Amino acid sequence: MSPLEIWLRSTYLSQMMHTWWAWPTAESLHFFGLSLLIGTVGLFDLRLLGFAKQIPLIALHRLIPWGIFGYCINVLTGLSFFVGEPDQYLYNPSFQIKMVFMSLAGVNVMLFYLTMFRRVRVLGPGDDAPLPARIIGGASLVFWIGVMTCGRLLTFFRPPAFHWCPWC
Amino acid sequence: MIHNVALLFDIFPFTGWIETTALSVWVRESPSLWAFPFVLILHTVGMGFLVGTNIALDLRVLGFAPRVPLSLFEKFFFVMKIAFFINAISGLLLLIAYPTKALTNPLFYLKLTLIAFGLAQTWMILNQVIRKPFVEMKGIPAKAKVVAATSLVVWAGGVTSGRLLAYTYKHLLAG
Questions:
Q1: Burial of B61: CB neighbours in 10 Å, binned 0-12, 13-18, 19+
Q2: For a surface tag, which of A39, A120, B129, B172 has the fewest beta carbons within 10 Å of its beta carbon?
Q3: A147, A46, A149: which is closest to B53 by C-alpha?
Q4: pTM exceeds 0.80 for this model
Q5: Helices B77-97 and B36-61, interaxial angle, to 10°?
Q6: ω before A132 within 30° of 0 (cis)?
Q7: What average pLDDT does range A65-82 have in this prediction?
Q8: Closest by Cβ to A152, choosing from B44, B55, B69
Q9: How many CB atoms lie within 10 A of CB A113?
Q10: Cα–Cα distances in Å, from A33 out to A67, B78, B101, B172?
Q11: Predicted confidence pLDDT, tens digits, chain B (175 residues)
C-alpha cells in the first residue's frame, strides 16, 4: 500500500464509509446527482444541437445551477468512495478513463463559457446555435455518457483482477 | 415453502426456470462486456435521461427557469419516452438475468410502484399544465406544484430503491 492509501484509510471518512449504511446512501445520492446533471446539462446540450429549438437557450440555462448542484453531490459522494476504498479506484483502468472523461468535460465547459456563452445567450426562439457551440454540446453529451459508462464499468475492472498503474 | 411475505406462492421454481434459459445465462454469465455490463450501462444512462428530464420538468413547474415556455417542454417528452423504452428493455434483461434476486426483494416491488407513480404524475402534469394554454397566463395551479414536488421525492425514491437492490437481496439465484 502506498503512503497515500494508508493515510486515506486512516481517516474518519474512510472508516465511516464502511458502516452498513454509508456506502449504499452515497451510491443512491450519486445516482440522483447524476440524474440532476443529465436532466439539466443534457437537455441544454440537446438544445445546442438544435432539439426543441423554439426554447431560447438562455431560458433553459436557468436550470444549469441544479446541474452544478448535482455535480457537487457527485464530487462529494465520489470522493467518499475513493477515500473508502482507494486501491479499488487508483489502480482501476475504468476509473482512470473516467477521470479522463471528467477532465475533458471540464475543459469543454470552460471552452463553452469562455468562447460561446456571449453568442449563445442572445439567441431567441428558433435560432440555431453557432457551429462551435453545437460541437461543444455534442461533445458534452459524449463526455458525460463516457463518465457514466466508465463509472458503471468500475466494478468489472477492479484490483486485484486488474491492476493498472501507469505512474508506478 | 413461502420465501417472501410479499408473495402468495412459491416463485422459486419459476425464477429457477428463467435462470436456466439461454438469454438469462448469457446476460448473467457471458464474459463479454456486451452482456451484463452493457445492459447495466444502458440502464444507468437511460435513468439519467428519464429521471433527469422529469426533475427538469418538476423544477420548471415549481417556478424555476420561468422563461422556458411550458407548452414547449413537451418536446422533451420525446427524450423521456426514448429513455423509458431503453430502461424497460434493459430492466427486463436484468430481471431475466437475476429473477430470484429481484422478485424476492420487497424493494423491487417498491421501485416498480414508485416508477408507476412517477410516470402517472408526469402524465398529470402533461395534461393539466403543459397542454393547458391558459396556465401560461394565469400561473401554475398550486395543485400542480404539489404534484411536481411530490414527483421529485418519488423519483428520488425510485432511484434509491433501485440502487439498494444491490445491497438488500436475500437470494441471488434459486439454485
A1: buried
A2: B172
A3: A46
A4: yes
A5: 140
A6: no
A7: 98
A8: B44
A9: 11
A10: 8, 22, 26, 28
A11: 445 555 567 899 999 999 999 999 999 999 999 999 999 999 999 999 999 999 999 999 999 999 999 999 999 999 999 999 999 999 999 999 999 999 999 999 999 999 999 999 999 999 999 999 888 788 899 999 999 999 999 999 999 999 999 999 999 999 7
| Å between B103 CA and nearest CA of chain A | 20
Instruction: In whole angstroms, give the CA distance from residue B72 to residue A124.
Output: 14
Q: How far apart are the first and last CA of chain A?
A: 12
Gap between the Cα atoms of B39 and A137, Å rounded: 25
Write the DSSP symbol of residue A122. Answer: T
CA atoms within 13 A on the CB side of A34: 28
Greatest Cα pair distance, chain B, in angstroms, is: 61
pLDDT for res B1: 45
The x, y and z cell numbers of residue A41, run together, are: 446539462
CA distance A90 to A16: 20
Distance CA B44, CA B40 (A): 6
Per-residue pLDDT, A163: 93
C-alpha cell at B50: 428519464
A145 vs B45, B53, B160: nearest CB: B45
For residue B126, the 8-state DSSP code is I
Is the Cβ pair A55, B79 closer than 8 Å?
A: no
Count the neighbouring beta carbons within 10 Å of the beta carbon of residue B113: 14
Contact assignment for A40 to B56 by CB distance below 8 Å: yes
